[in-house]
Amino acid sequence: MRPRPDEAVGPASAAAKGRIPDFFIVGHAKSGTTALYSMLRRHPQIFMPDGKEPWFLADELHERTPPRPEGTPKTLQQYMAWFDGAGAEQRVGEASPLYLWSHTAAKRIAEVRPDARIIAILREPASFLRSLHLQFVQTYIETENDFAKAIALEPARREGREIPRYTYWPQTLLYSEHVRYVEQLRRYHAVFSPEQILVLTYDDFREDNEATVRQVLRFLEVDAGAPIEPLHANPTVRARSQRTHELLHAVSVGRGPLSLTVKAAIKTLLPQRLRRGAVGTIRNRLLYTEPPPANELVMLELRRRFKPEVVALSDFLGRDLVRLWGYDSIA
Description:
- By secondary structure, the chain is an alpha/beta fold.
- It is built from 16 helices and 7 strands.
- It is globular, with a radius of gyration of 21 Å.
């Protein structure tokens, strides 16, 4: 959603009205972005808002957005209000992992902050898509619980069929679009200089969490010697029961008479300060469990499918990701 005509989108107007982030963690999801966000916001020279994903600068994400306590900014002024708590000397950042997938976010970021620093984290395609699918099921974007079947639905979904009724981002269910790594990075290189872009891998983050964060701090030109507490956040989980999962979602967003009945019961039984988290607590305790082991045949087929992308990405970055991700042994 673009700003209204009375909301200019240049750095000068932004400076007059409020803060625009100095840096952006643009993705990918399920690749360490939540942990990086959580660690950076503890640094005294960095401000990141409580809400991790404002999504404002990706036009594709405003067709329909899920309800959440902090809301989703609809105007430039609302977006800048997310950063009102920043100190004058702090670096300001935001993290919206779908900005890398978005076709519009790179240009929009460059419009409001041409000198921004961009941080991207990439992950081996098959493991990335499996974790992304589990996340989409957890957050009600996807309703097909079987990973292989969800991947196979892509041709039908490109034609507008087999779209979950209540999904708020149907475009994101075209899973192969998330693995266009070179195309995605080129969109940022088209509007930012190479010195403004830092590309990491999920492997970097997992192998040496602290060293990777210090690399990011140097990139942001803040004190890289500050204490760092290693953190791994946002684990991958799966729903124990898809039916129960959908039922609790209907309750949480207020669909149907059952939702009204359950919410009335919660209001009667719980004090006001505890009501907001009641459904979420039930969901977290009863609904989720560890995911099963990956189907190796499905994972191998995906790796064969995406090997050309990994080869192209290795050439683009000048880094041997073919060997790092084990694609050198895949015919």
